[in-house]
Specification:
268 residues; alpha/beta; 8-stranded parallel barrel; 13 helices
């Protein structure tokens, strides 16, 4: 089993600037593909090219995209190894394992992604799945990013600060190395969320497509200043009119410390 220092080194290899920007396209499986993959984004090559040309650190995808497209690109892959569709009941979600760690290693994955639904009636099964994935991933020296999503009939408010903070702590104690989580729009809440995550690195989930780039970059600024490690963004990059410029605008805020208006000049 890898030591914590070895896992930190593996994260550093896919995050050379010290702050993460990961491009995600696992929505084809997880969401309503015809509604969410529109225009050029239907073609996986289009999104892989954004990852390659944009200023991102890694590309998050499911096994099929890694198998069929990954060899054509140099961008590091974070392989998502569980998932569900919108065709299953929403009340208490469960994402079955879709890829083994052995197969992820064969595909050259540099890290693993896994969704934990906190509060689902299937939580016990989810935790057991995660235990197996996390331990085997660490055996191979691969960091594990956990999507920490409070969701199910037991969860009354997915955006409640205390619920998100509890979910962050659960992710830490389950052994996740990075936590992909929602930002509820309150910077002080995010600061506490980061603290509850401890040494598990906080990533803001990009969420649904917004039509206001300025507001989205403001969220980036707030989350970065709250101490988050970085971002795992999908639709707000590859559905943008200027997706590569959008990655660079995010980096202007996150890495260069530029104000929102300076970053927006990238998109003019």
């Amino acid at each position: 089993m890898s030591t914590q220092k070895e896992i930190e080194k593996a994260i550093a290899k896919i995050t050379p600037k010290g702050k993460a920007l990961y491009l995600a396209q696992d929505q084809g499986l997880e969401h309503d593909a015809p509604a969410e993959l529109t225009g050029e984004s239907i073609n996986p090559d289009y999104v892989f090219n954004i990852a390659e040309k944009g200023d991102v650190d890694a590309f998050i995808c499911q096994k099929g995209l890694a198998e069929k497209y990954g060899d054509s690109y140099k961008v590091p892959i974070i392989l998502k190894v569980n998932g569900k569709t919108i065709m299953t009941p929403k009340d208490d979600p469960y994402s079955p394992i879709t890829c083994s760690i052995r197969r992820a290693v064969e595909l050259g994955a540099k890290a693993i992604g896994f969704t934990n639904f906190i509060g689902s009636k299937y939580q016990d099964k989810i935790f057991d799945d995660f235990r197996k994935i996390q331990e085997e991933a660490h055996d191979f020296g691969l960091p594990v990013t956990s999507w920490m999503y409070p969701r199910g009939q037991a969860i009354k408010d997915e955006a409640k600060a205390e619920t998100l903070q509890a979910s962050a702590r659960i992710g830490l104690e389950l052994g996740a190395d990075m936590l992909k989580m929602r930002y509820n729009g309150n910077p002080e809440d995010m600061k506490k969320q980061v603290k509850f995550g401890g040494k598990a690195k906080m990533l803001m989930a990009g969420g649904a497509k917004t039509h206001n780039t300025k507001d989205f970059l403001q969220q980036v600024k707030e989350v970065d200043e709250a101490g988050a490690f970085g971002f795992a963004i999908g639709r707000n990059i590859w559905l943008h009119d200027k997706p590569v410029a959008m990655t660079k605008a995010i980096r202007d805020v996150q890495i260069e410390g530029k104000d929102i208006y300076s970053a927006l000049k990238r998109l003019e």
